[in-house]
Amino acid sequence: MPTPPAGGGFNVLQSLQNAFTTLLNYVPNIIGALLVLIIGYIIARLIRAGISKLLRKVRVDEKLTHGKGGEYVSRFSPQGKPSQLVGLVVQYVLMVFVIVSAVGTLNIPAVTGFVNLVLSYLPNVLAALLIFLVAAAIAAAVGGLVHRTMGDTPTGRVARSAAPTLVMAIAVFMILNQLGIAETIVNTTYIALIGAVALGSALAFGLGGRDAAADLINSGYRRAQQQSGQVQRDLQVGRERAEADARAHAPNGFGQGNGGHEATAQYATPQPPPQASPTPPEGMPAAPPAGATRPGDPYTEPQPGRTEPVTPTPPGGTPRR
């Protein structure tokens, strides 16, 4: 077999030898990366178990899954237990740091750059997960509050389902915005939905509630008119009672009209009934009535120049009583 000319052709044996040498040089790095992964995985699992156990002891599962809003937490958490979800998230976060350390041990520039890119995006993922957990807790609290307030009434059931759904819908928009997924579309859609809800509520109140508002105003006006008439009647009754009380306690002759005469008659001193004059014996003239005068009678006829009748002295000198 002819020997290839010097400086020309491709030496396969030399290439394989160079690759094997490079691999041998990377063996310590590979072993170190594997050790980092194994040890980091074990530590992450232990931390996950400890956090899940701690959350179960403080009854986080019962608090987050209670009420209508707890359905969202149970739907996205493993076996319906938020404590396991939190433990799993902690494990994944720790594994990310473990992987970054392992890649750094390999000392491969391309892989190291990719891992650094993923690591820079990790805070957004953690923030989105935190938003989801907080929104789920708020939805559960709102659902429980509505249930305790309105009970099992038809309106209460609708509100108990609508309130957590509204909270989680807002949380979804916040999560997408935090993750940076189609930020422009998400923001535009969110603003459009909020505007549509506000406009629909305004139209429903302005058009659909127009009759109700008119009835409310009319009923208030009628009630005010009725109360006004009642107030006038009450004032009139009070005035009449005051006048009657004043006439009843007034002195004699103070009142005018029938009321005054009635009050005077009520408080006047009662007079004894008039006594009948005794019947004279036969042959004697009857005594004239009191205050009556007869012409030529010196006892009752008034004298000239006097303002009152003067009783003359009878024969014998004894004045007549």
From TrEMBL:
One of its GO terms (molecular function) is mechanosensitive monoatomic ion channel activity. The lineage of its organism: Bacteria, Bacillati, Actinomycetota, Actinomycetes, Pseudonocardiales. The chain crosses the membrane at residues 26-47, 85-106, 126-146, 158-176, 188-207. The keyword Membrane applies. Residues 236-248 have a biased composition (Basic and acidic residues). Residues 224-233 have a biased composition (Polar residues). Residues 289-310 have a biased composition (Low complexity). Residues 270-288, 311-321 have a biased composition (Pro residues). Residues 222-321 are annotated as: Disordered. Keywords: Membrane, Transmembrane, Transmembrane helix. This is Putative transporter (Transmembrane protein). Pfam families: MS_channel_1st_1. The keyword Protease does not apply.
